[in-house]
Amino acid sequence: MSRVYNFSAGPSTLPELVLQRAASEMLDYGGSGQSVMEMSHRSSAFQSIIDRCEALLRELMEIPEDYAVLFLQGGASTQFAMVPLNLAVHSGKADYILTGQWAKKAASEGKLLLGEENVHIAGSSAEGNFSYIPEEQSLSFSPDADYVHICLNNTIYGTLYPYIPDTGNVPLVADISSMILSQPLPVSRFGLLYAGAQKNMGPAGLTVVIGKKSLLEDARPNTPTMLRYKTHLDAGSMYNTPPCYAIYICMLVLEWLKNDIGGLKEMEKLNREKAKLLYDFLDESTLFKGTVEKDSRSLMNVPFVTGDKDLDSQFVKEAEKAGLVNLKGHRTVGGMRASIYNAMPLTGVKALIDFMKDFEAKNR
Ligand SMILES: *Cc1c(COP(=O)(O)O)cnc(C)c1O
After folding, report:
1. Which CATH architecture has domain 5-16+262-362?
2. How confident is the model at residue 107 (pLDDT cuts 50, 70, 90)?
3. Is the CB–ligand 1 distance for residue 10 below 6 Å?
4. Which helix (H) or strand (E) is 149 found in, with range?
5. Which of 242, 234, 165, 239 is nearest to 208 (CA)?
6. Residue 294: what pLDDT?
7. What is the pTM of this model?
């Protein structure tokens, strides 16, 4: 068997130990004589999986008691609609900061549901092709907004907020799909956090929402049952059949984070080490260069270019032959992007840098 180093932005690489454990339990989970894929979501065996998944997430992220954890479906994209439907219940207005494609999509959905006139853009880096996060002093919040929405790590452009915006009494909502569990996060600074699992916590099909319970009680009139947080809060995320297998793999990833990595502080150290190696190399390289301003650099997604489109595609092709896959950049940025999520080992980043050095020497 030979495994590649997979730099995909999502779905993305999973810890090998997790895959091995899932394989060993595939036919018979914990003596139940069935796979987790086959068992009833109402069984006690599955109940203990979802309970353990939530307990581990709460422990690792230090989620306060007055916050709920929901295991949903529909991807982060469905949260673009659920957030306005459930949170815009007072003034019906919302602020959005535009720092990339996902933030823009969230804002468009807000406009669709709340009306164009009720969505205020509190900051944007669109004019710089989203290569930085706007400075905090430049943001202009509406005092009567029901929430402020941000995308904390911008997967496509490779930027991460170097600060958490202070929105006073207005709840801060963050899409953390591509940075959840990559470093400790002060959950209480946010009203609501959400993430598609397929970047840093498991397979596609699961979306995790962490929200202050008091924000999950209400919804706008005519909000469909399945799109109300309250429905899932009251039903322990089992109003309907949850994505059982994805939740199980997420549980294994959380166990790996706790037992093999040693928690989020340790994870952050490792992530910083990996990112620093790659950014330091990019800063010194005579061929490759990073596309993001230094103080906004993501620890998870690292876009870079050679400045020559043909050379970029040659690089992606040759890297693939060398077992370094999915390095093609997003079509809106071009060039390359290396996603180095939690499960990408240091050896994978080193292999990439060695390959880049080699390529640089041959193509100078
Ligand atoms: C991938 C991604 C999404 C889209 O997630 P889906 O689960 O495919 O809907 C949204 N936001 C961010 C930041 C992402 O990285």
Report:
1. Alpha-Beta Complex (3.90)
2. very high
3. yes
4. strand 147-151
5. 242
6. 97
7. 0.98
